[in-house]
Write the structure tokens for this entry.
Amino acid sequence: MLTLSKAADAKDLFRDEHSLRVAAYAAEIARRMGKSAVEQRQIYEIGLLHNTGMLGADEKTGSEPARPSEGAHSEAGKRALFGSIREMPELVKGARWQHERYDGSGYPDGLKGDEIPESARIIAVAVAYDAMTSSHADARPMTQERARAELIRCSGTQFDPAVARIMLDMIDEDSDFKMNERDADISIWRGSEQLWPACDAPAGGEAPESTPPPAEGLPDWLCRVEGLDVLAGMKRCGSEETYLDTLKIYADTAQTGADEIESYWRAGDIGNVTTKVHALKSTSRVIGAEPLGALAERLEAAGKEGDTNTLADGLDDLLERYRELGRRLAPLCGQEETDDRPEIAQERLDEAYDSIREVIGRMDYEKVEGILQYLDNFSLPERERGRYKEIRRAADDFEWDRIGELLA
């Protein structure tokens, strides 16, 4: 789930952690509507994944298509969702119908009023508020007062008046204007604390041997990893299972990710250095590695300004800390299991690879994932395991060109 959310937000360089903020706003709206803890959690997950339509966005601009093809945004989001969470159809509603308008003038289906799923009506208000109070390529964030006035103006036309009223109440209570792109976090959702157990060890500090594990399924040594706030990471990821999966992905890609940034730097490609450091900032904050994320944010700003001196001074430190965190988390990826799967015939493997080649041009995540899941049922020849691992990693990150290179 976080993989999809990160991939979607990474497409839009001016909406860093947008989905995490939307998820928190939406869950708090649901809490105030009297929804159960389970329903609040579901709304939070819909918020995380509402932006998956960005996976079909223009690669050069990193923005959504214009209105004539905006319906494709909803369909692209639905396809991405179906690829890995078919058992949670409610999530698809948030991606498909978030652009409907309360007066019936929205898309893709022109639904009106209560015809629009309630979850989509909640997400629509949360998305709009975050969009108004965040930076964009061609606009600065609105003031709190102006964002409030826009919600009032659009209540009953664009937004469900009841949902808009709750968001207005949240704004009125936010006297210090914490609900903005820099300060908003999971704590906006006041029901979040009951869903995640706390970690008794301080972030980045040494814990005594008797320190209990932060949660039943997490190893106790995580609380002793310097620079890692386990509680913050679990809150951002939404569940213990998702947090552990995200940590594994982070650990598994840290070394190659650092190498890639270093390679771009040596080639003088500041644009790609900045893009990759931006992604590192976001993923580090998702897992609770805030110090690393803060350093990445500073270097990202330097890259955008063309400040190569600041990049040169800080990049080595960033990459060293990135690699070291990857090494500290590596034991999460080291649980090897006996491979008792049947060996795949070379002919079948070649056919599967050919099928992937045919669909990557269409960026059809669902079909690629289906083929990879089929291959997961078999033991691959040893000479193919490294390549397959890279293909799987590239597919998880939606790096279609990289898959093509691996299969060339």
In short: The mean pLDDT is 78. The CA atoms of residues 25 and 126 lie 6 Å apart.
